[in-house]
Specification:
Blueprint (H helix, E strand, L loop, with lengths): L1 H11 L1 H12 L20 E2 L9 H7 L9 H18 L6 E4 L3 H12 L5 E6 L2 H12 L3 E6 L8 H11 L3 E5 L1 E2 L4 E2 L5 H7 L3 E5 L18 E5 L11 E5 L1 H8 L12 H7 L15 H17 L1 H21 L17 E4 L6 H12 L1 E2 L11 E4 L34 E2 L5 E2 L4
Parallel strand pairs: 1-12, 3-4, 3-5, 5-8, 8-9
Antiparallel strand pairs: 2-10, 6-7, 9-10, 11-13, 14-15
The structure holds pyridoxal-5'-phosphate.
The site of pyridoxal-5'-phosphate has 14 residues, from helix 5.
Protein name: Alanine--glyoxylate aminotransferase
Enzyme class: transferase
GO molecular function: alanine-glyoxylate transaminase activity; amino acid binding; L-serine-pyruvate transaminase activity; protein homodimerization activity; pyridoxal phosphate binding
Length: 430
Amino acid sequence: MFQALVKAKAALGPRAAGWVRTMASNQLLVAPPKALLKPLSVPTRLLLGPGPSNLSPRTMAAGGLQMIGHMHKEMYQIMDEIKEGVQYVFQTRNPLTLVISGSGHCALEAALVNVLEPGDSFLVGVNGIWGQRAADIGERLGAQVHPMTKDPGGHYTLQEVEEGLAQHKPVLLFLTHGESSSGVLQPLDGLGELCHRYKCLLLVDSVASLGGTPLYMDQQGIDILYSGSQKVLNAPPGTSLLSFSDTAKKKIYSRKTKPSSFYLDVKHLANIWGCDGQPRMYHHTTPVISLYSLREGLALLAEQGLENSWRRHREAAAYLHGRLQALGLRLFVKDPALRLPTVTTVAVPAGYDWKDIVSYLIDRCGIEITGGLGPSTGKGYPGKASPPALRPPRLPRSPGAALMIPLGTPLSPVPVPTVSLSGSVDGPPR
Ligand SMILES: Cc1ncc(COP(=O)(O)O)c(C=O)c1O
């Protein structure tokens, strides 16, 4: 090899001299990492935290399919199918519906970076970490951010929202439908209409709620809605769903300034997702394999039907809540009507450190639940009722093995696991 390069050097003259010197005189500073020379090791875990969820066999199989080009016509076909799936799960006819190549935060950032302009008034429901994040991004974009701060566990009434709208005259209101850090389900009825009366757009985070509880983007007057792939859809994290109403689109398309992000500029994204009727152009390389999995997650939900999925989550959550309370545990969200069916939060019992409970379950039972996040850290630990349409990974049969609903099992009575503080997990026998 070296000989060949020396010969090439002679033939090519001084132009190639530098290449040969580089190849010959430099030694590698960094050796191949030993850790990478061992096989990949991934533990078997039952993911009962607020997300990500275990993959369904179908989303997992989709992730093992061969790559095709992100601009091949077959890929565009798959993207079109995904778009229809998003319109179904969001219950929207918005043409500007697409998928972001990034996690839920990226969809939030895409919404804000496109809709907000510097100086815009932005009203934010901060009743947990997701409102904090929205406020943070809004500040970075130079918006005038008006947080409506509440303790974790709180939600917003129409009256409170109206006071905020009247006082701050925002162009945009942010609310979290499923506050996964506190377990609160924010009622959405009436909010769209109220916002529109005040010429304000309504932006809703449905990362933790989509597919698990009723949500009707168009009928509820939601202008911008986003969600993630890794929760009820049981697909890998890293892609997110986003849709804009015609009114939101008008605000974006009449901006005085370009959005500060090229990657998240909705005009470019609308093109690659076939929303603008123009030939699709290269913008960025989309995560082809993750999109296959997302397509399958959406397909599973479409086959099951939204209403069935909502019902199964409601029944599974009711069962879990009953069993937890029967064990003497207190649910963090007091009003049953405000409990998010996809994420159950349990108040940390006096005398226990939440970290010990979380570690015990993961180390002894291979089960993930988590502590709170942001303002709810240490106050409760979210976990979810069994993802009802999903066969979980095989877990070791130890005093903690989980009993779950096999695919297709009739759901009455709903056999979901209950998590006890002694670390055991039990449920009706299979
Ligand atoms: C309600 C909610 N919003 C936003 C996010 C952020 O999503 P990601 O972690 O995919 O960026 C999460 C993640 O758990 C969430 O639960």
